[in-house]
């Protein structure tokens, strides 16, 4: 009888744990779907009166510092290998990935930038198939072709802003490619096994690199505190708390528990949220070309995700506890 009661209690505890895990996964995906979609508009406002690399560096410095202090208080102590891996991720995710995005949004609509960032799963698919980590399937090929067509349509000659937007679009694509490389790298690197500490370390590494790059490019000399608007300060605060502290922690947590192609599906929702907010709040123009391009890009991402699902290596599908054990 006692054995039966113990088994029932264990089964109930497992169900509660599984339900809690599902709720956390849903909340984490909400963060990277909706909150990240809104950060494009926040970046648009922040870079109005604050230099772009400083915006990116400061938001990650504040968020990373808070997360690191909390993890340190919990007794977590990173080693040199973990700092080295975080530095590489800081270069790929933040110095290149976010630095290019913040710079480009100075001269292009935030919704258009979000659509270009939506090509992230396409880059992932190209890299995984090129390294034979995924099979080439008909939906994958169709998605890649559609993705190229969607990007070409977006950055065409009659895109809003002309040649300035063309250059900014290419810069955003470079940053998106770098972010995709960072995703692949994060799966097999020696990052700290704790997701929050990993996020904190890479945020801090990226922040220091961005601030250093901004100083070398003369942003410190061009920054005029008296000219910083309240709207830019609110944008920076939103990016720090929600974009970096909340959403990036959720993103990193998901990367350690879900296949990268599934995590990358945040690019379905991000452009829609960014386009609607840019139109409703900032008065950005949504042309027929942009609507068609958005539909093509989202369709491409859907096909790529469908073609990549289940085609990745076993290492990307392994249990979180096994992956954590391999990292320690």
Topology:
Layout: H1 2-46, H2 52-73, H3 80-104, H4 110-117, H5 120-130, H6 138-154, H7 163-188, H8 195-216, H9 219-222, H10 230-255, H11 260-263, H12 266-280, H13 288-308, H14 314-317, H15 320-327
Helix pairs in contact: 1-4, 1-10, 1-12, 2-3, 2-8, 2-10, 3-7, 3-8, 4-7, 4-12, 5-7, 5-13, 6-13, 8-10, 12-13
Could you explain how this protein is built, in words?
It is a single chain. The chain is an all-alpha fold. The chain has one domain. Helix content is 79%, strand content 0%. It has 15 helices and no strands. The model is unreliable at 310-328 (pLDDT under 50).
- Please give the domain count: 1
Structural class: mainly alpha
Number of discrete helical segments: 15
The biggest sheet amounts to:
none
Mean pLDDT: 81
Helix content: over 70%
- What is the straight-line distance between the termini? 41 Å
Radius of gyration: 20 Å
Shape: globular
Helix and strand element order: HHHHHHHHHHHHHHH
**Would you report the number of β strands?**
0
- Residue windows where pLDDT falls under 50 for at least 5 positions: 310-328
Per DSSP, what share of the residues sits in E-state strands of 2 or more residues? under 5%
